[in-house]
Amino acid sequence: MDKHRCGWCVGDALYENYHDNEWGTPLHDEQLLFEFLVLETFQAGLSWITILRKRDNFKVAFDNFDYQIIANYDDRKREELMQNAGIIRNKLKINSAISNAQNFMKIQEEFGSFDAYIWAFVNQKPIKNNWKHHKECPATTEISDKISKDLKKRGFKFVGSTVMYAFMQAIGMVNDHTTSCFRYNEV
């Protein structure tokens, strides 16, 4: 029997696998939080499937999303990334991944972990929405506005409210699975 999924992922095996196993699952691992932050910032202006298809390339190019390594990338590494056809070759986004890694660690120092910082915006508990259709889901919320503003104040780049809402969805801060989706009550 076919599982009922959110409409946005149906028909593409990669999308369905991501939806079924990752999207909306509360995430607290620092390395994975940084990975999603990088992927979401690179996604700005593009479709998520484009990023998913390049995810493995990003993982290799960005040292498995190790923010401590990325924070120390030099000009030679920046140029290497700009020549890597397997990722999104956008100089501003590449530079933002590096500065965001540095700022990520500053947040860790201040709050003990990025996890403690980011989840405090939802009082450490996922917001569970009740959408019947995925198109009801907003692109931004007051909380994503607040996160975006705070991250920008801390020097982060490519963290507009829309990007931050997508980040919140991806890491399970908000459950935007449709009510008929098999994952709705699982996450």
From TrEMBL:
Q: Can the keyword Ion transport be found in this entry's annotation? A: no
| Documented EC number(s) | 3.2.2.20
| Keywords carried by this UniProt record | DNA damage, DNA repair, Hydrolase, Metal-binding, Zinc
The name on file for this protein is DNA-3-methyladenine glycosylase I
The protein's annotated catalytic reaction(s) are:
Hydrolysis of alkylated DNA, releasing 3-methyladenine
NCBIfam families on file: tag (TIGR00624)
Source organism of this protein record: Aquimarina aggregata
Function as written in the Swiss-Prot or TrEMBL entry: Hydrolysis of the deoxyribose N-glycosidic bond to excise 3-methyladenine from the damaged DNA polymer formed by alkylation lesions.
